[in-house]
Write a structure and sequence with these properties.
403 residues, mainly beta, Porin, 2 domains, 16-stranded antiparallel beta barrel, two-stranded antiparallel sheet, 2 helices, 21 strands, 11% helix, globular
Length: 403
């Protein structure tokens, strides 16, 4: 079609010519025709090989932007941003307020052979927080490696994950009794999933370098079974993890006796007193009308006392569409030696173990990409450094965006 238009343009634009000139013109037009046909064929070839961007409107809808190549490998970019206001009242300490942010971006490659994930996040080097506090005169803020792992399918039901990953261990009610939501274990896990049964087993390092004389890995096994009973969904599970850290020095500078676990600081440096062989059992029941309840219990068999923890809670609503509401009411009791203080929810009762009390969360989905969350916790903190339990209240207001 294109070469025909070009021929017409040339003929109508040219005055009458001699027969020899006409023959010359015909020859040139024939060559031009062949060239245009080659260009058309090349264009079709390029179009057949092009990378297709799927649903660019997804950006406005807060869905991750995806790119699919000719070999069906899919690359997805997802990011989120959160502004936070915190108000903290701790008995015996001055009232504290602060403004913080969290920014994350994750690139995911999903091919026929494996899935690869690379993520960056704001914050410092804390294992359980990527928040960054505003201040220091508006100084630039830290950006850290948050995720770097691969998932390799061994079969239709079995997969292998390795690297610095999202925690594959299940958190009932999405509550941080044992694991903070931001904790990224560094290790290897095998996952099995079939007919409602999910089993996760593996290990991750607290320290992998032998030159530090503090090499230590944690080993974990967890299973859960999901079934439906009429309109009710029931989840039952149990697990175990083992951290033999007695005599080891803390693996992170922020892990002190104030965080909850007993440490012996009479020598050259502080060391853990107890190992942590933690057994867990949990249950969740999802009812109609977006109501669910959960319970999670743990016990450390390597401590003679002060070694148990539990949380019970109720969730209502969901956050998917604009105008959706959600709420959670939970009560948690976590004794000091029940689990590793370093890895628990960093918000509840100031983080770590030795906290007990009630936490309420309200969420409102303003739009598909924007949500407002309000958290209030009235708790009591008991540590080895205080002679009596101390009241600890926390109010958190979050503005969360996905783009």
């Amino acid at each position: 079609m294109i070469y025909r238009l070009l021929i017409l343009c040339l003929l109508f634009a040219s005055p009458a010519r001699a027969s020899s000139e006409v023959e010359t013109l015909k020859s040139e037009v024939s060559q031009l025709k062949e060239l245009v046909m080659m260009l058309e064929q090349r264009l079709k070839t390029v179009e057949g090989q092009r990378i297709e961007v799927e649903d660019l409107s997804a950006l406005a809808k807060s869905n991750p932007v995806s790119v699919k190549s000719a070999n069906n490998a899919k690359v997805t970019l997802a990011s989120d941003f959160r502004l936070r206001y915190e108000s903290i009242d701790k008995q015996g300490a001055d009232h504290r307020e602060r403004e913080r942010l969290r920014a994350r971006a994750t690139l995911t490659y999903k091919g026929d052979d494996f899935t690869g994930v690379l993520g960056l996040a704001s914050g410092g080097d804390s294992p359980t927080s990527t928040n960054q506090t505003f201040g220091s005169g508006g100084s630039t803020k830290g950006l850290q490696l948050d995720l770097a792992y691969v998932i390799y399918p061994l079969s239709e039901t079995l997969s292998l994950s390795a690297g610095k990953m999202k925690n594959p261990l299940y958190r009932p009610g999405k509550f941080g009794l044992v694991w903070d939501s931001d904790y990224r274990p560094e290790g290897v896990f095998v996952g099995y999933e079939d007919s409602g049964l999910t089993v996760t087993a593996g290990g991750f390092w607290l320290e992998s370098d032998t030159k530090n004389a503090n090499e230590r890995a944690v080993y974990a096994l967890q299973g859960r079974y999901e079934t439906a009973l009429a309109s009710t969904k029931l989840t039952l599970g149990a697990g175990y993890f083992e951290a033999n850290i007695s005599g080891d020095s803390p693996f992170y500078s922020g892990d002190t006796i104030k965080l909850g676990n007993l440490q012996d600081c009479l020598g050259a440096g502080c060391v853990y007193v107890n190992d942590y062989h933690v057994f867990e059992a949990f249950a969740e029941v999802a009812l109609a009308n977006d109501i669910s309840a959960f319970a999670h219990w743990i016990e450390n068999s390597e401590a003679d006392s002060d070694n148990q923890g539990y949380v019970v809670g109720v969730n209502y609503g969901r956050k998917k569409q604009a105008g959706d509401w959600a709420a959670q009411l939970a009560y948690q009791s976590l004794e000091n030696e029940a689990t590793m203080a370093l890895l628990t929810d960093s918000d509840f009762a100031g983080g770590g173990t030795g906290g007990e009390g009630t936490q309420i969360t309200l969420s409102y989905q303003v739009s598909k990409a924007f949500a407002v969350n309000l958290l209030y916790a009235h708790t009591e903190r008991t540590t080895y450094t205080d002679s009596q339990p101390l009241d600890y209240e926390r109010l958190v207001l979050d503005f969360s965006m996905k783009y």
